[in-house]
Amino acid sequence: MLKIMIIEDEKDHFELMEHAIKKEFPDAMVELCETADLCLERLEAGGMDIIIADYLLAGMTGLQLLEELKKRKIEVPVIMVTGHGDEGLAVKAMKSGAFDYVVKSGSFFELIPEIVRKAIHDRELKAKMRRTEEEKKRLQAQFLHAQKMEAVGTLAGGIAHDFNNLLQTIKGFTQILLSNCSADDPGHAGLKQIEHAAERAGELTRQLLTFSRKVKIEPRPIDINDHVKAIKELSRTLTGMIEIELLLADDLKTVNADPGQMEQVLMNLTINARDAMPEGGRLIIKTENATLDHEYCRTHLGAVPGEYVLLTVSDTGHGMDKETVERIFEPFYTTKVAGKGAGLGLSTVYGIVKGHDGYIMCCSKPGKGATFEIYLPALKQEREGRSSP
Ligand SMILES: Nc1ncnc2c1ncn2[C@@H]1O[C@H](COP(=O)(O)OP(=O)(O)O)[C@@H](O)[C@H]1O
Ligand SMILES: [Mg+2]
Fold first, then answer.
1. What count of other Cβ atoms lies within 10 Å of the Cβ of residue 345?
2. Which atom of ligand 1 is nearest to 273's Cα?
3. Domain segments of the chain: what residues?
4. Which amino acid residue places its CA nearest to atom 12 of ligand 1?
5. Contact status, residue 368 vs residue 381, Cβ threshold 8 Å
6. Mean pLDDT for the stretch of residues 234-263
7. In Å, what is the CA distance from 129 to each residue of 78, 143, 295, 300?
8. 90-102 pLDDT per residue, tens
9. How far apart are CA 135 and CA 142, in angstroms?
10. Is the pLDDT of residue 253 over 90?
11. Could you point out which of 94, 112, 262, 345 has its C-alpha 20 to 30 Å from the C-alpha of 160?
12. CB 157 within 8 A of CB 206
């Protein structure tokens, strides 16, 4: 509904303007404000589409009103009304950002609706331009992010690959040495330490290789619901005071995925949720069938239209600010104290989802929990009652 505020101290003039506007815009809400102060107060509340203001307001000139609006970042088009012979003031008002002006003269009331129409049109155009601009910025940011992830992935993958080969040598020779010395040998404990450190280093490189999709995946048709249920069982002891709620679609489509990797995804997200809720809270794991359409994919770089199984993991934890959300999938990015987090949990999840031609995104706000959405391509359903040849 169109909302117009008229700032005018002459009641008759207000009524005539209201009448002229209502004739053209019967659904419009026209509100009278007798002083500029009242008007500003009212505008702060938002929801106004157009202001029609007499230049000579009680307690303030039209120019001062325009300045106040600018200061308060209220972006509503102002149509300035000036008296006959005051066209100079009108020009000043235009220079200060008024949308248009109208002189109180013979055809004044007939002119108002036309100016209102122009203002509506202008407002819509500006809103559209703003939306396009925002969309462009968002896509640019998404593009940069994807590029960065790709570069980090290549780098990490390269290092991890070479590193892994070196680790194999370390592990191999450690084992040979261990097999040649008994447990009470002075060197035995040291060799055990080397073996243990090599195991841990191996685990880190494995996560990095998963992130950069250098680990071979072994997909087979699976029902994600089974794995969600299994993870709930597994994480019972892990999550302590956290209540886990499952909302599983019973008509869920099958996905072609590596079961081990899917459990890894669920596990990493569950552990993060637990860490985000040290005083307890709720973890909700939801599954459903979903379609990604062209409109969604146009605004979400990396998403491909099609049929998906959507896995949503959300918690009621401390959440994240915008800067954190932008970086969570980078390897080694962590906000946790040293020793608590290596910053590889979500990069592994990211690599796994990408490796399955899926799409992942995260929504979070400080104090408002976090939600991770994972789209995995659904397998085409085999038609029921297929007859054998
Ligand atoms: N559910 C969540 N709620 C709030 N913050 C989260 C959540 N999941 C991840 N994060 C943030 O993302 C960062 C990276 O997560 P991750 O890659 O798993 O590494 P780590 O858990 O080792 O820090 C975390 O340090 C944390 O800041
Ligand atoms: Mg983690």
1. 23
2. 1
3. 3-105, 140-211, 220-377
4. 328
5. no
6. 91
7. 19, 21, 18, 19
8. 888 899 999 999 8
9. 10
10. yes
11. 262
12. no
Residue nearest to atom 4 of ligand 1 (CA): 319
Helix (H) or strand (E) holding 307: strand 306-315
User: 382 pLDDT band (50/70/90 cuts)?
Assistant: low
Q: Enumerate residues 6+ apart whose C-beta is below 8 A from 48.
A: 3, 4, 5, 42, 76
Of the pLDDT bands very low, low, confident and very high (cuts 50, 70, 90), residue 45 is: confident
Nearest CA to ligand 1 atom 18: 345
**Mutation probe of ligand 1 site: the residue of 210, 285, 332, 334 with most atoms within 8 A of C-beta:** 334
Length of the chain: 389
The arithmetic mean of pLDDT across residues 63-84, rounded, is 90
Considering the four listed CATH numbers 1.10.3720.10, 3.30.499.10, 3.30.565.10, 3.40.50.970, the one that applies to the domain covering 220-377 is 3.30.565.10
Residue 353, both tokens? 């989802």
The atom of ligand 1 lying closest to the CA of 317 is 3
Name the CATH architecture for the domain at 140-211: Orthogonal Bundle (1.10)
Q: Which atom of ligand 1 is nearest to the CA of 272?
A: 8
- Residue 383 confidence (pLDDT): 53
Q: 386: pLDDT confidence band, cut at 50, 70 and 90?
A: very low
Q: Is the pLDDT of residue 185 over 80?
A: yes
CA 24 from chain centre, in angstroms, equals: 41
Residue appearing with tokens 């010395």: 181
Within 6 Å (CB) of ligand 1, which residues are found? Answer: 268, 272-273, 276, 315, 317-320, 324, 328, 333-336, 341-347, 370
Ligand that comes closest to the CA of residue 341: 1
Q: What's the gap in Å between 158 CA and the centre of ligand 1?
A: 25
User: Model confidence over 18-42: pLDDT tens digits?
Assistant: 999 999 999 999 999 888 788 888 8
Which pLDDT tens digit goes with each residue over 307-339?
999 999 999 999 999 999 999 999 999 999 988
Residue 129 makes CB contacts below 8 A (sequence gap 6+) with none
Ligand that comes closest to the CA of residue 327: 1
Please answer whether residues 211 and 349 qualify as being in contact, where contact means their C-beta atoms are separated by less than 8 angstroms: no
**Distance from the alpha carbon of residue 360 to the mean position of ligand 1, in angstroms:** 15
What class is the 3-105 domain? alpha beta
What's the whole-model pTM score?
0.77
